[in-house]
Amino acid sequence: MKLLSSILLLLSISFSAVAEESKSAKAWLERLSSSLQSLNFSTSFVVIKNNQAQPYHWFHGIDDNNNELEIISSLNGPRRDILRIGDVVSYIEPESPPYSVRSKQISGPIPAILSGDITQLESGYDFISVGKSRILGRPAQLIRIEAKNAYRFAYWLWLDQKSGMLLKLSIVTKKGQQLEQIQFTHLDVTENLSETLLQLPSTELPVIVDIPQKYQQQKLQWQVNWLPKGFKQINSNRHKISLTKQPVEFMLFSDGLVDISIYVNGTKEQQREVDFVMDGATLVLNQVNKGIEVSVVGKIPSQTAKAIADSITILPPERP
Amino acid sequence: MNENKFETVSSCVDNFQHDENAFDEIIKDEHLSATWDRYHLIGDVLRNDTPDTLQFDLSAEIANAIANEPTVLAPKASNVFVLKFKAKVVELAKPFGQLAIAASAAGLMVLGVQTNVAQNNETILPSQIVQTIPMAGIAQPVSLNFQQPDRASQKQAFIEQQRRFYALLSDHQQQIKLGSSAVNVVDKAIENTETDIKKANEHNK
């Protein structure tokens, strides 16, 4: 009786402690999301991957018309700017002429979900509040977004205890190896819009590309039979890869945090061994099997990518 | 108690120690646990992160508070039956009280360990990573001799592969940028059809 009751007591205490932890971790992430949406801030950060550091400036604010204004620009090398006014995002890059898309999210070095609805990650990830430390000269809280299974990487976030802002982010393997880091080097949260953002509404943005619905949801002659739980298809289309002019059939999947691209095309080669490279946490895997080339790209471990590539089957041609 | 053990505690506090046994040893050893507490307190003070009132040992305070509680004595009862009943309650409640103290102390210990397991402060540069190198220009096609693949054709194949990887990577990034907007386009299309259906329904009525 004594033993049983003591076990019960211990269990109930540890369970409630775990629940409490994940609740407070979620509260931290919700606070981060609202800070990223509502604060006027100007900040700098470096993305560290492949033994290189790439510095960025990031401005965000709310104008008088309640529009969100945002600029992320890369500071080294050719100009790479992302501008956002409300729900129009413009990308200025060396690879292609500038263009705008209709979206509320910037697709850049910071995962867009962090300023979005964090609850959609709950099915695939656990939120854990880990501990305190000092980042960017401020007391910070470490929150881990840990994948529920081994098919994904973990995201560690250090958040400012005062403003709830992001101070550091690491993408980490299950074994604890850090693949990619974003370290903030400067953070200013201000009452008013910064000078740079005040000029943004008067800038003429590039034309919005209109993507026809038919283009993005095409029916393809193959299917993916396995993906880690929680991934949903975002689109499927046929296009040419801009750099090599290679025509491909393409599907894009996302679990909210991680995007996976899958490319399938015919090739002259009959067989080629599987080969992959990592750009920070982003894996590019490529193999040729029986004259069909399959490539998988995304921030996932190589085993996951290989399993996805192997699960693809070609459908028999439909009879008209 | 030797210097080594204190060093282990210190490295655990700083998250340089990943040996599970080290944690077990600290938890078991009262002296080391106290050192663990003290190191964290020092860390908090250095970070200027201490709460207004410091509670050094919660379990000791709870035990004190319980000791100071006035003992409830059963009032003199005229009925023998009631007396018996009360005695039973005391007997049952006593072990539970002790258990609660033990359990809360253990709970604190578990919590304490959990909150400090990983604080990786240093900036580690990733290793074991193959870099994708953006290739300038277009590689000239080379006639391949399939019977005897020489070094030049191997190099050519390598460059070809790097180009392929880089092209895929940049296409992936571009598709994500277009992807999020495509979802909006699709959502809007669905909304439109829904409103169309509604209108049609209203019209039929």
Q: Which class of the largest domain in chain B in CATH terms?
A: Mainly Alpha
CATH class of the largest domain in chain A: Mainly Beta
Main pleated sheet of chain A: 11 strands, antiparallel
Major sheet characteristics of chain B: none
The portion of residues forming beta strands of chain A comes to over 45%
- Shape call of chain B: elongated
Question: Which class do the helix and strand fractions of chain A yield?
Answer: alpha+beta
| Largest interface: chains, residues each | A-B, 72 and 61 residues
Mean pLDDT of chain B: 65
CATH homolog superfamily of the largest domain in chain B: Anti sigma-E protein RseA, N-terminal domain
The low-confidence parts of chain B are 80-84, 112-131, 133-142, 181-195
Query: What is the count of β-strands of chain A?
Result: 19
Q: How many DSSP E strands of chain B?
A: 0
Q: Can you say what the CATH homologous superfamily of the largest domain in chain A is?
A: Lipoprotein localisation LolA/LolB/LppX
Radius of gyration of chain B equals 35 Å
Instruction: Count helical runs of chain B.
Output: 6
Summed up, the domain count of chain B is 2
Q: N-to-C terminal Cα separation of chain A, in Å?
A: 73 Å
Number of helices of chain A: 4
Class from helix and strand fractions of chain B? mainly alpha
